[in-house]
């Protein structure tokens, strides 16, 4: 599904790109903008695809692309610092370079969703791969039915893209519901889990597509709630995360029974996932 | 490897003497092929570089059982009188460690220096049908997906294959039930059957134009009917004497619907998670990457090395491993090998060589595990 050209020296060669800016999002996440001005056509991608980002001498990790698909001149990734590689990526800083290869993976089914209502469900960092889908939906707003965005985070401080989220909440073209697991008295919004928000969304199950990304437990309960309301499994799409070393179907790390999450996913419909995702430790 | 072979029925068969085999090996070396063949090494019949028939494991065989491998003598002076050794040809094509690139730090970042690959031209001597099937299975991973592995592709293109049809079944193999042997039917340039009765000689069958040309050059003579019949009898006897089998009827459905079968708990009490089965398996393809730098951090390297789904690191995701129990890791390996491989690559990942049985330190037998699940299909934990 990759739209990128195959590097002559093999599909695992990173391309060093300069960091244009590096902005802190939350206590443990940052958004990096990479300079693709020297690439003819910039860095085209489809919402939901990911890149492998390489920190010199430290390692490589899969990171979703979070930018606007209509603006391939800007390449954005939102990264959570959880280990040595992501920490090294953060330290690269403005003006430095990180290695990039991609884009990889099956994107969100935005063509298939045309004419339908779209429910976007994001938990924590799960908003990062969904941001580009939301920007696409807004840009092509008339082609879709009702669009709802349900966002959850552990705390108000843990919400990604807070200013943009506030703008979206003011945007009449979107219904935005935000919840947090825990908050102090200054928080005036919902407190609770993401699946509970679905009860406040008017769903027409026969014409609804759901796009979700977040912790697997959150997705499990969200799927259950969508199914309860009658949304068909084939229109519930999950973006999955697994260990990945190559992203091109060689290393075997990202397997989920029949799927290679790198090339068959990361976005997969629940009717295909259902038989495999329920036993523990697959 | 070989060009498209003519249909089996039309293939002419030849007879090659022992001297003829030596001439064949000399001719291959003369043509610039490095010979990789069986030889006795470290207490096993292993693949290594050989120079001629003198290096072959003449008069040697092996005794294999679950968790057991022993060399033994045989009285008939056979050159290829064994089944399969600990290592397949995998390490010659999908190499255990490979540098992917080097990166050099510069004032404004770093530059990546690609590795170039110029692999040797290898002639595999004595390749068995199961192992040729294994190569075809790995081709699907490395050559037939959306991306090609350039190093594997380069090594794969520089192969000449002299197959040997098995003259005896190994103690742990089950190729007949996997439909992968014991007779080599494709993927070779020349296939030999060793004939020990009525004069030590080989029945030789070309599998490619260059294989046919080589046989002509080394003085192979057209086979007479009795020689051809004798060779068929050798392969038939091997097939008949195979001690193990795997029933593959609806094996994908069987494994998929038994992901919570109590047998996984049972096997997890025996499995050590040592990774031996994945290392000796000729189709296992998992790899990981390693990053290193020099002391001053000026030059960085990235290498690929073999990995195994039995390690905790294999499924590590920030915070922990997806498959933290041995139960889930053994289930992943076996389910992948015989079931989900079909969904991924349209073939079984198991080719019936029996290496995982022989080299398992506690003798876990893949055929026995599948049979145990089949015998109690649908059993639930605690049942």
From TrEMBL, chain A:
GO terms for molecular function: 2 iron, 2 sulfur cluster binding; flavin adenine dinucleotide binding; metal ion binding; oxidoreductase activity. Binds 1 [2Fe-2S] cluster per subunit. Residues 12-110 form the FAD-binding FR-type domain. GO terms for biological process: pyrimidine nucleotide biosynthetic process. This is Ni/Fe hydrogenase subunit gamma. PROSITE patterns: FAD_FR. [2Fe-2S] cluster binds at residues 246, 251, 254, 262. Gene3D superfamilies: Nucleotide-binding domain of ferredoxin-NADP reductase (FNR) module, Translation factors. Keywords: 2Fe-2S, Iron, Iron-sulfur, Metal-binding. The keyword Ubl conjugation does not apply. InterPro entries: Cyt_c3_hydrogenase_gsu, Dihydroorotate_DH_Fe-S-bd, FAD-bd_FR_type, Flavoprot_Pyr_Nucl_cyt_Rdtase, FNR_nucleotide-bd, OxRdtase_FAD/NAD-bd, PyrK_electron_transfer, Riboflavin_synthase-like_b-brl. It comes from the Bacteria. Its cofactor is [2Fe-2S] cluster.
């Amino acid at each position: 599904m990759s739209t990128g050209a195959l590097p002559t020296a093999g599909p695992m060669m990173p391309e060093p790109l300069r960091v244009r800016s590096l902005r802190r999002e939350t206590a443990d996440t940052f958004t990096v903008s990479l300079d693709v001005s020297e690439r003819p056509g910039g860095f085209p991608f489809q919402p939901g695809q990911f890149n492998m980002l390489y920190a010199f001498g430290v390692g490589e990790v899969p990171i979703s692309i979070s930018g606007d698909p209509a603006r391939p001149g800007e390449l954005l990734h939102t990264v959570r610092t959880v280990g040595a590689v992501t920490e090294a990526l953060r330290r690269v800083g403005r003006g430095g370079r990180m290695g990039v290869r991609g884009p990889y993976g099956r994107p969100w089914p935005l063509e298939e969703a045309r004419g339908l209502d779209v429910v976007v469900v994001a938990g924590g960092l799960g908003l990062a791969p969904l941001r580009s889908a939301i920007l696409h939906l807004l840009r092509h707003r008339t082609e879709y039915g009702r669009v709802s965005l349900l966002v959850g985070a552990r705390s108000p401080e843990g919400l990604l893209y807070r200013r943009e989220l506030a703008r979206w909440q003011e945007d009449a073209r979107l219904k935005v519901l935000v919840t947090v697991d825990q908050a102090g008295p200054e928080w005036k919004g919902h407190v609770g889990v993401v699946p509970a928000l679905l009860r406040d969304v008017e769903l027409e199950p026969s014409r609804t597509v759901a796009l979700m990304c977040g912790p697997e437990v959150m997705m499990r309960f969200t799927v259950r709630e969508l199914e309860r309301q009658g949304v068909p499994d084939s229109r519930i799409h999950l973006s999955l995360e697994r260990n990945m070393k190559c992203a091109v179907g060689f290393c075997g790390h990202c397997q989920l029974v029949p799927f290679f999450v790198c090339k068959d996913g990361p976005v997969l419909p629940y009717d295909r996932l259902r038989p495999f995702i329920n036993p523990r430790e697959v | 490897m070989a060009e498209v072979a003519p249909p089996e029925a039309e293939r002419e068969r030849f007879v090659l003497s022992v001297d003829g085999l030596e001439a064949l090996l000399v001719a291959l070396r003369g043509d610039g092929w490095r010979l990789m063949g069986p030889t006795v090494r470290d207490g096993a019949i292993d693949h290594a570089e050989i120079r001629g028939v003198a290096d072959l494991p003449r008069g040697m065989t092996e005794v294999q059982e679950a968790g057991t491998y022993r060399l033994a003598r045989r009285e008939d002076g056979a050159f290829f009188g064994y089944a399969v050794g600990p290592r397949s040809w995998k390490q010659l094509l999908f190499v255990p460690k490979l540098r992917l690139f080097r990166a050099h730090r510069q004032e404004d970042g770093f530059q990546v220096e690609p590795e170039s690959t110029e692999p040797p031209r290898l002639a595999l001597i004595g390749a068995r049908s199961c192992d040729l099937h294994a190569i075809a299975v790995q081709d699907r991973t490395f050559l037939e997906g959306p991306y090609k592995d350039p190093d594997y592709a380069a090594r794969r293109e520089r192969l000449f294959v002299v197959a040997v049809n098995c003259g005896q079944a190994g103690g742990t193999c089950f190729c007949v039930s996997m439909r992968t042997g014991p007779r080599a039917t494709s993927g070779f340039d020349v296939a030999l059957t060793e004939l020990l009765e009525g004069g030590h000689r080989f029945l030789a069958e070309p599998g490619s134009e260059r294989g046919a040309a080589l046989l002509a050059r080394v003085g192979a003579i057209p086979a007479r009917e009795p020689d051809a019949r004798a060779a068929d009898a050798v392969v038939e006897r091997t097939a008949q004497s195979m001690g193990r089998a795997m029933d593959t009827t609806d094996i994908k459905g069987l494994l998929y619907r038994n992901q919570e079968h109590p047998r996984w708990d049972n096997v997890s009490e025996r499995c050590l998670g040592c990774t031996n089965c994945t290392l000796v398996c000729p189709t296992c393809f998992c790899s990981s990457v390693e990053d290193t730098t020099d002391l001053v951090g000026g030059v960085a390297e990235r290498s690929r090395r073999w990995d195994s789904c039995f390690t905790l690191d294999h499924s590590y995701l920030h915070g922990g491993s997806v498959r933290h129990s041995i139960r889930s890791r053994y289930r992943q390996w076996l389910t992948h090998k015989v079931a989900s491989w079909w969904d991924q690559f349209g073939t079984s990942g198991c080719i019936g060589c029996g290496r995982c049985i022989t080299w398992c330190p506690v003798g876990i037998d893949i055929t026995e595990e599948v049979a145990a699940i089949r015998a109690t299909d649908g059993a639930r934990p605690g049942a």
